[in-house]
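Bench log. Compound arrived from synthesis this morning; before running ITC I wanted a structural hypothesis for how FE2/S2 (inorganic) cluster sits in the protein. Inputs:
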Amino acid sequence: MDFNQASEENLFDHARIVGKPHARIDGRLKVSGQAPYAYERHDVAAGQLVGYPLGATIAKGRITHMDATQALKAPGVAAVVTTLDVAPLNRAESNVARLFGGDVVEHYHQAIAVVVADTLERARGAANLIEVRYAEEDAEFDLEAALERLQNLGEPAADVGDVEAAIAKAPVTLDAVYRTSAQSHAMMEPHASIVDWSDGKAMTVWLSNQMIAWTRQALATTFDIDADAIRLESPYVGGGFGGKLWLRADTVLAALGSRAAGRPVKVALPRPLMFNNTTHRSATIQRLRIAAGEDGRITAFDHAAVSHTLPGGSGEDAVNQTRCFYAGENRRVAHHAIDLHLPESADMRAPGEASGLAALEIAMDEMAEKLDMDPVEFRILNDTQVDPEDPDKPFSQRHFVECLREGAERFGWEARNRTPGGRREGAWLIGHGMAGAYRGAPTLDSGARVRLARGRLVVETDMTDIGTGSYTIIAQTAAETMGLAMEDVEVRLGNSAYPVSSGSGGQFGAASATAGVYAACLALQKKIAAQLKVGAQLKAEELRFDQGRILGEGVDLALADVGDGDELVAEDKIHFGDFKEGLQIGTFAAHFIEVAVHAYTGETRLRRMLAVCDAGRILNPITARSQVLGGMTMAAGAALSEGLEVDRARGFFTNHDLAGYEVAVHADIPEQEVVFLETPDAASTPLKAKGVGELGICGVPAAIANAVYNATGVRVRDYPITVDRLVEGLAERAAHS
Amino acid sequence: MHPPDQLGRHRDASAACGDDHSPCTLHVNGTRHDLTLDNRTTLLDALREHLALTGAKKGCDHGQCGACTVAVNGTRINACLTLAVMHDGDEITTIEGHGTPESLDAMQQAFIDNDAFQCGYCTPGQICSATAILEEIRAGLPSHVTENLSTAIDLTDAEIRERMSGNLCRCGAYANILKAIHQVAEAHS
Ligand code: FES
Ligand code: FES
């Protein structure tokens, strides 16, 4: 089905199931420990062995010697495959560093061997017996130093108007530098795969992955085999956040181990290996200049940023959202990805915006203060309904101002602390902050197959559910379209035997995959119409599917009676047309935060978090709310505790486990409220839906930073805002008061 | 046992790997299992790999995430941080002992009612911990945030959050987990 123009009024505008709260249909399996994650599938292949990976302990250089003799002799060991045993594997498009093969080490903890044994303990023990010698090469690991040397914040991606002239003549300007730390996805389920490639021909892979079709193709490229010979299953994914978009070493090692041992092999990346072996979000250094008139209208933005990447990658583009979030005639943005030999940086939840808005939305707060304006009103004044670089290109929908007003009202923004450092309860300084959020709402073509037999519908698509609620919203979409109850729909996901979907990522999954399922259901309706044995041939559009029945002129039939007991199968995909390119389609939010900062220690405690979101039709308010809560929680970590620390001499992340890398824990998270505006967007999909999974992390770190400033009067522009970054300023202020 | 030689190295690969086995009896969810286990096998791997009870999850294998939480003789423990052979004769309760998909216990149901999970990977550990903390509070075991040690412990948000902080949830379901625990606590009181 082609989606070539904005939707008219349709069944989703009068929905019974879509848009209504429905508990997760995969919930019972998850709470009882019965949902099968990748590493747990004892039943899928007999005779599984365990592979244990070995990681390189240099960041750049060559392996001059590897000796696995002792490992091979160790009890229970079936095979050892070292990187020197294998010619360099092809690099799939989505991988920057080679995943295995050859003597070149491109980053620390790059996989250099896998030991296959009958148990984990034996494989791990034997892996310790492998001797490795390296010829280490000099490399650069320090973003600050590289930036200083380069003196270059990048070639502009956009340069509209005359930024320098606008800044020179503006009465109010800001010029400040902000830093975000490198971050790890740290999803709770480690990367894991079981691979059966025993005969070296057909390959079956049970893994934890967000993108089935991409990863299948990446495997085909990596091993130079036919994609048709590869089958992938990933029905449950224990969190991804972008870290499981790609083929990674767990699958490659399990495949090589399986071929070598002639048995199915499972590999889970040990947690301490994950941070340096897999991908992460790059750190950024961002310089922002903003100019405005006395009236508070912004006249210029200049946003330049650097991030780091292995040679050939793209880093973290923190400037893109600045192109169209706020009005202003003059604008320049530039991103420069600097080559460093740290592990591979790649996408993490809201790649770009999460870091970019963390800086931009502090800068907006600083501007509001210089202008002596309410930061909410400052943003409202600078709202735009068109792309500021291309005023002929409107936003399909943009209710950012409503988010701001609704949020201010609900939060009690009027009663906020108005003097930085001015409100105190005992030893605690109380502050309030807010920020805006903007994240695009992309869609990707997405397919599905539906099977109808005896009134029960099965939906099959290679879409994944990474905690996002795909199972549930897909069932809701199918039940709505076919006039069935939720109980009559079964959803099967994450299998390369099913039609290719959008997959999960980039906030495109929910909107795209449900549209694809809708398309497949319409194809089924056509088949049903063609089968009806009534006088005149009816078109599918002339039929209504309601409460398990098919109704139309001269037709009143139970869906259970269609097809004479035979299964009816239909397949289709949604194809999104070019018309979308004439529009900016995005999601928006306003975030409001209350913090308490300890006046002597600088400890920051979150007290309240509120998000008001404009994200199209919300398909299921329960699962969508959880997505936003999850984003806010991850953002709390990004703001206050998360940061990969670089060993600048040896080139690796030192805090490479869950003790050293501090994600938000339960005690860090206060009362959280999420509000969705009713804003179906007809230009987005037939369901008028957009994603929310990434919106929730956008802007929140800045709202927290602004609240900390409001509490203390100490402006911190470097994340995470840890006590060491606050105490000096707190002491200074205490000395002067 | 194979003692290390004078250089501190082990004599052969088998010794270097510490490849010794011991008999061990575990009572898991009321069922007795007589096992012979590699001494290095954690309780978590004994459950997941030897008994195919994969409800307890492995998030870190280092006692840092709580995904592997189970009850041993009524006390919650990180099953990855203890060796199976140390639990000869012990009573273990895993998520599989709480309820099945067809017959959930109150905490499992409360997690569904409050959407207290997303990806579900931390969830069995959260449920095992949540069940245990209500017992701990009832039994008067104080936590870091308990205000008064001489009276019964109030079931405050702070008390629950503190006690649940060893169970990470990267999906960020904490707000809903809190509600689920309150739901069960209120039903009991
Ligand atoms: S797996 Fe045991 S604490 Fe993480
Ligand atoms: S539900 Fe995914 S980590 Fe908790």
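What the model suggests: The domain at 2-35+444-577 of chain A is CATH 3.30.365.10 (Aldehyde Oxidoreductase; domain 4). Chain A has a mean pLDDT of 96.
ITC booked for Thursday regardless.
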